[in-house]
């Protein structure tokens, strides 16, 4: 279809950029998509070139073991933000005690509703006055 020609060319551009970054699996994926959208000689030639150079799925940084399923996180690849939040507490024990005390009290300041209570849509409970 002539309508998909621009998208196929865009996929080819993405694939050539992936090839320059040594991401052959990504390039193959986009070249195959380009061929499905609008078959071109350029996409076919690039696919043949990749196949001729002996590319097999699994030699890439972002590949899976069989090349068909979702990517899996490797054992040493934890997110640094998660790791930092797990190792260092950002609160003190006094602050933790204050929060526990706050949620165990029967009355909450300034009309705060505890998360476990649910009220019907549109209902606002009366605000209590505190001494």
TrEMBL record:
GO terms for biological process: cellular response to misfolded protein. Residues 53-92 are annotated as: Disordered. Residues 83-92 have a biased composition (Polar residues). Signal peptide: none annotated. One of its GO terms (cellular component) is endoplasmic reticulum membrane. It comes from the Eukaryota. GO terms for molecular function: Hsp70 protein binding. This is Uncharacterized protein. It comes from Oncorhynchus kisutch (Coho salmon).
């Amino acid at each position: 279809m002539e309508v998909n020609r621009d998208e196929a060319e865009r996929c080819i551009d993405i694939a050539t950029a992936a090839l320059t970054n040594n991401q052959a699996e990504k390039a193959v994926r986009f070249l195959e998509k380009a061929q499905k959208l609008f078959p071109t000689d350029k996409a076919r030639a690039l696919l043949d070139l990749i196949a001729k150079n002996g590319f097999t799925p699994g030699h890439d940084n972002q590949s899976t073991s069989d090349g068909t399923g979702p990517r899996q996180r490797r054992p040493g690849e934890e997110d640094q933000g998660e790791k930092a939040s797990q190792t260092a507490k950002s609160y003190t024990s006094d602050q933790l005690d204050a929060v526990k005390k706050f949620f165990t009290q029967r009355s909450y300041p300034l009309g705060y509703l505890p998360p476990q209570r649910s009220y019907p849509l549109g209902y606002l409970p009366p605000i209590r006055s505190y001494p």
